[in-house]
Amino acid sequence: MTIEFEAPKPIAQTQFVLKTVAEEMMRSKSRYFDEHEHEIPWDYIEFMHTAMKATGAGSLAPKEKGNGQEGAEQKEKRPPIAYQSLASQIEMLAWGDVGMYLVTPGGGLGAAAVQAAGTPEQKAKFLARFGGDKPTLAAMCMTEAGAGSDTSAIRARAILDESTREWVINGEKIFVTAGDKSINEYEKLGKGFIVVWASIDPTAGRAGMRAFVIEAGTKGVQVTKLEHKLGIRVSDTASISLVDARVPFDNILGSPTVEKTTTGFKGAMATFDATRPLVAASGLGVARAALEFLKEKLQENGVTIRSGLPRQKLTNIEREVLDMEIMLRSAWLMVLKAVWMADNKKSNALESSMSKVRAGDVTTKITQKAVEILGPLGYSREFLLEKWFRDAKITDIYEGTGQINRLSVARQILGYSGSELR
Fold this sequence. Notes:
This protein has about 425 residues and is an alpha+beta fold. The chain has helices at about 10-25, 30-35, 40-55, 70-75, 80-100, 110-115, 120-125, 180-185, 265-300, 315-345, 350-375, 375-380, 385-390, 400-415, and strands at about 140, 155-160, 165-175, 195-200, 210-215, 220-225, 235-250, 250-255. The protein has three domains: about 10-105 and about 120-130, no CATH class; about 135-260, Butyryl-CoA Dehydrogenase, subunit A, domain 2, CATH 2.40.110; about 265-415, Butyryl-CoA Dehydrogenase, subunit A, domain 3 (Up-down Bundle), CATH 1.20.140. A hairpin with a 4-residue loop joins strand 2 (about 155-160) and strand 3. Helix 6 packs antiparallel against helix 9, helix 9 (about 265-300) packs antiparallel against helix 10 and helix 11 crosses helix 14. The chain is globular. Mean pLDDT is about 90; it is low at about 65-75.
């Protein structure tokens, strides 16, 4: 198999449509929603839900190849491009506005967890709702006040009530992206859910960690705080309290028993192998927006970037812009490799973390450098560049910080375990 660098026709066609959405429905409202934090962009949400429902997409979540109506030979010949397509869609929507992209109706991290670790029955039950009559969101709840990057420190507890065959979950989760929209039943939203990480046996360490699907409306689940943030302000980031929240037995993702190995934990962590390249793609959409704006403003002021000349014949600004181009394109190639591996069911834990690390660095550096080069214009709120600079940093923080992903990369390359290299 080979990686194709030219976008397949279906992806190119989708990109053309999404660019119009990004320009007309996102860019035009970016400043408003940045200044009205937590206000919900209903027009965008409802439009995207209608569009995805009409095309059969249902949500921004990877689909199995084929539509059930093709012959076996045709299915075999069609290359799998689900994750590649998703990465391209996300990059374009983030180019429009990354905060609004994060409230696109669909599964998000919550659905990705079900997709990665759920049974066929769980996938049918929870993922089908994203193609329903109302736009629906889902979220992942992992981080706690005492357990950020160190997931082994999670203290949320799930105990099985044998009399009712229900899991009783207690704990508190913080920094939950789209947590409020996923569990508070707004009139215009469908019944979403959160995926909560908790331990079924604290003495077993990571082997006791499991993910549970908790649906909107579950008693004992409450949003206790909404964060006020530097960037991605239209996307809510919530703290969620769970007090004796009762969850059906079948809502556990993975085995309900504790094995001696950490298989269950690793199975759930496969969620991040699939989604980290997608987070990287969203950051690179922001970086591309900033770089294109910079080049546009330079062009307006008579500065043309001359590629193809020896570096010593270029001006300093030309060298800096070309270096930014190199950073952006190299980071995108790392994303392409990671999603290609996911599409072809190859283990991509290393490539996933590498793409996330690189995108976090690149997005931050490109947006910062663009602000520096344009000076007062870059710092002014007259343009969106300063907003993109603020939006950029989250790429390096959520879904595993840059530092944690670097540790992950080092462990895999050097062959160390988590306890040996911390």
